[in-house]
Structures are given as C-alpha cells and as structure tokens.
Amino acid sequence: MPYRQPPRVARRRAAVRERLVAEATRIIASSGWSGATVAAVAAAAGISTGAVYQHFPNKGALAAEVFRRATQRELDVLSSVLAGTAPASAAGRLAHGVGLFAQRAILGRRLAHALIAEPADPPVVQERTAYRRRYHEVFAAVITEGIGTGEMPQQDASVTAAALTGGVAEVLIGQLSAPVDGPAARSLVAELTALALRCAGAPTTQFAPPPLEAACPRP
Predict the structure, then answer these.
(1) Cα separation of 191 and 170, whole Å?
(2) What structural domains and CATH numbers belong to the chain?
(3) What local confidence, expressed as pLDDT, does residue 117 receive?
(4) d(C-alpha 188, C-alpha 82), whole Å
(5) Is the per-residue pLDDT at 218 higher than 80?
(6) Does the N-terminal peptide bond of residue 203 adopt cis geometry, omega within 30 degrees of 0?
(7) How far apart are CA 125 and CA 173, in angstroms?
C-alpha cells in the first residue's frame, strides 16, 4: 500500500510550496527570471536551499509553476471579458478585453515583460507556447461570434486570432522594457484597442478602453 502523508503534514507541505511560488513570483516581478535563483527564493521563503528541492525538482520546474499561475490569472481575466455579456457586442468585448489586458500589463510591467519576453528556462518557453494557443482560442471564439453577428467581415478567425495574439505581445515587448505612465500609458492602451479592432475588421470609432485606473492590478 502506498504511503499517505498525514493531513497535517500534507497541509504544511502545501503551505511551503505556496510560499515558494509566491516569493518566486515577487522576485521575478522585481528582478526578472535571472533574479529568481533557488537560493534567493529559499531565503525569501525562510527555508534552506535544499528544502526547495523537496517541492520542485529544479529551478525550471519552479519557474514553470510561477509562469502557469501568473499567466492563467491574466487569461482568466481576458476570457471572462471576451465570453461575458458586457459590452453586448463581440467587437465591444474584444476592445474591452484587449484594453484591460494591456492596462494590467502596464500596471505589472516588470512581471509582464518577464512572462512575455525575457529569456527563461526551457520549461517556461514550453509553457509560453501552450499559453499562446490558449490566447488564440479565446480570441478566435469572440471573432467567430463577431462574424456571425455581422460585426466583423468573413475571415479565418484562427488566423486573425494568431495575428492579434502576436501583435499585442510584440507591441508590449517593445513598450514594457521601460516604465510607461500617464498619457503615454493611456495612448498605448488606446492604440492596442484600435489595433485589435482593425485586426478583426471591426470599426474603431465606437469603442474606447476603460480608464487606466479601472484596471485591476496584478496580484
């Protein structure tokens, strides 16, 4: 019969694992992937370096877990807007979703840049590829809806979604390497919102992104 940890031990291990992920995320949001060494994360979590390997086999596994959780939060926010009911139109939700995504990236600039662009361990690179496909899927769904309602012209929704995912990421990579604040931030959000609508063939004059202050900061 396989060994089963007592519930108290399992809870304690789970709490340590969560602390490691939280501290690694905080370090990456401040110093990027290169700063999140096993020793640095262990020190921040208040445990020995060797103890980290009881929860993650290597730095790459820890980094991949941080990436999955941070990226999934952003994907959940975007998905909830794109698949929601407000705004009522597909084009309005596309504009709102891209605008909100850009705002959150600006507010969490350092972490966003690490997630999108910084050189990272191979497990993180693999996760990036997987999550790009998920972004394609949520964008393709709202574009398909827009085609069905006549808001957007006939097109291959999958191709447009891939172009939109890549375009937004490419713009953010170039802009998030330095702080973006005030008018520059609002202009960037507006440009990305318009880009999303143009990419899908929807009019750009009807929709405006919410104020920058309305965006939820990254956890």
Answers:
(1) 13
(2) 1-56 (1.10.10), 64-214 (1.10.357.10)
(3) 92
(4) 20
(5) no
(6) no
(7) 15
Average pLDDT over residues 34-43: 96
Q: pLDDT, tens digit, for every residue of 63-97?
A: 999 999 999 999 999 999 999 988 899 999 999 99
SS3 of the chain: CCCCCCHHHHHHHHHHHHHHHHHHHHHHHHHCHHHCCHHHHHHHHCCCHHHHCCCCCCHHHHHHHHHHHHHHHHHHHHHHHHCCCCCCCHHHHHHHHHHHHHHHHHHCHHHHHHHHCCCCCHHHHHHHHHHHHHHHHHHHHHHHHHHHHCCCCCCCHHHHHHHHHHHHHHHHHHHCCCCCCHHHHHHHHHHHHHHHHHHHCCCCCCCCCCCHHHCCCCC
Residue that wins the pLDDT comparison between 218 and 174: 174
- What is the C-alpha to C-alpha distance for residues 164 and 168, in angstroms, rounded to an integer? 6
Q: Average pLDDT of 13-38?
A: 96
Q: Give me the residue label for tokens 């959000």.
A: 189
Check the CA dihedral 104-31-69-192 and report its sign. positive
Report the alpha-carbon distance of residue 52 to residue 17 in Å, rounded. 8
The C-alpha atoms of residue 131 and residue 120 are separated, in whole angstroms, by: 15
Amino acid residing at 52: V
